[in-house]
Structure formats: C-alpha cells, structure tokens
Amino acid sequence: MGYAIYLDVNRCVGCQACIVACMDQNDGETGKEQIAWRQVFVVERGEFPRVKVNYISLSCMNCQDAPCLMICPTRAISMEEYTGIILVDARRCIGCHSCALVCPFGVPRFGQDGKMQKCNLCIERIKQALEPACVRACPAKALQFGPVNELLHQVEGQVAARMADATSCLMVGKITSKSRNSQLPSA
C-alpha cells in the first residue's frame, strides 16, 4: 500500500508545531537526547516590494528506491513492507554516515551515540490508525497523511486548480514512485 505525507506550502505558516510534536512523540524512543527529525526551511523569492515567503516542512521522504537503504553496509536500514516506511535498527547501525552522504534530502541525523536517527512516520501511531504527530499538530492543516494513491489523486487535483488560477507556480516537489512525501506547488 504505502503511506505518505504531503505539505501544502501555501498553508504552512512556519510555526514549527510539527517539529515540537515530533520531538515530543519520539522523546522516549531516543531516550538520550532530543533530535529534530523534521525541519522547517524558509524559502524567499522575488525582490522588494514583491517578496514571496514559503515554509518547507521536511522529514524523511521514505523513498521507494532509498539510497540510504542500498548503501548501508550493516543493513541497519530497511523498508517496512506494508507501509513503505524506511526504518533504522539502531542496534545494527555503526555510525559510518554513508546514509547521510547519499541522502538527497539531508535527512539522516546522528545522536550522541553516533547512530543514525530519522523520521519513522510515527509507525506505532499508524498501526493504531492514527496520523503522525506532526500532521496532528499542524494548526494550518498544511501537512496531510494517507495512502500514497489517495494523496496523489488529491494533490494532482489541487495542483491543477492552483495552476489554472496562478500566473506563476513554484514546483517544490511531486509525489512519484521514487519519493513518497511531497510538497504542493506554491501559487
């Protein structure tokens, strides 16, 4: 099946509630320290007085052909079959940073123990039919979660509507078979 999160950059206000929710949700899992598995970036375009600011909330994209999974020498990184979520077994990770070198999104984080940590889409919440903590916490409803096919259909409709109304469009990302998380274009 496969699950994904997409971000509507037109809704994100950069409040970072997603980061706080992620850290709160995963505090017990990391145990030693809090590392933000999600980041919010500011993207500015244009020139004064026509400046456009968007916020990009980014975590692991759970790539279908994840380069981190392929390069890990100890096979500490795996893909959960039903959800398509890329998972890390900290017991097998040797902290070689190979995953960080090949990740096109700069996602892997390393704790004080030198082991890789990353977003797991709150897999325990998903197993309980709950949405990830970052999605639940987003006050602007900029983050959406669901099966890849449903999100793809929803996103394509929204993109078409925005492109019909917009004079210009910033394509930040698109859900493809290669990455499961996406950002909607900004109108």
From TrEMBL:
Q: Name one Pfam family in it.
A: Fer4_11
- Keyword set, alphabetical order: 4Fe-4S, Electron transport, Iron, Iron-sulfur, Metal-binding, Repeat, Transport
Q: Which residues cross the membrane?
A: none
Q: Which residues form the 4Fe-4S ferredoxin-type domain?
A: 3-22, 49-82, 84-113
List the residue ranges forming a coiled coil, or say none. none
Question: Which SUPFAM superfamilies does the annotation name?
Answer: 4Fe-4S ferredoxins
List GO molecular-function terms, semicolon-separated: 4 iron, 4 sulfur cluster binding; metal ion binding
Instruction: Please report the name of this protein according to its UniProt entry.
Output: Anaerobic dimethyl sulfoxide reductase chain B
Q: Please name the taxonomic classification of the source.
A: Bacteria, Bacillati, Bacillota, Clostridia, Neomoorellales
GN (gene name): dmsB_3
